[in-house]
Amino acid sequence: MKKEKIELDTECKSHIRGVRDTIYLLDGKWKTIIISHLYYTGKMRFMDLKRQIDGIAAKTLSKELKVLEMNNLVKRTQNNTMPVTVDYELTEFGKSLQGIIDTMGEWGIKYRKELLQNE
């Protein structure tokens, strides 16, 4: 017996599309971690950010920062210094992820406690 496809109303479809877009934008191992570091610490130089994020390669960090910048979540500022230094910070649009980052952090803390409790 073939099941029928459930028809969703326009509001549900819109929310599901929004979730899909968010997942697509934050996809991968590093983007959310980079955003979290910039959210909690503020403006950072490239090498300081690299030192803060365990296990990320410079090439990967550079690539992910470019994608985040392209999507208007991160602002890159090249300083007129010798040698040239570059700062990264969240844009106002990037800061709008505050609720998501806070909720993910809170859920992760609860999850870790739950795991440790069951061992």
UniProtKB/TrEMBL annotation:
Q: List keywords of the entry alphabetically.
A: DNA-binding, Transcription, Transcription regulation
**Top-level lineage group:** Bacteria
Give the matching Gene3D superfamilies.
Answer: Winged helix-like DNA-binding domain superfamily/Winged helix DNA-binding domain (1.10.10.10)
GO MF entries? DNA binding
What SUPFAM superfamilies has UniProt attached to this entry? Answer: Winged helix' DNA-binding domain
Recorded hits in PROSITE patterns, A to Z, give: HTH_HXLR
InterPro entries the UniProt entry points to: HTH_HxlR (IPR002577), WH-like_DNA-bd_sf (IPR036388), WH_DNA-bd_sf (IPR036390)
Q: Coiled coil where? A: none
The HTH hxlR-type domain, residue ranges: 12-116
**Name used for this protein in its record:** HxlR family transcriptional regulator
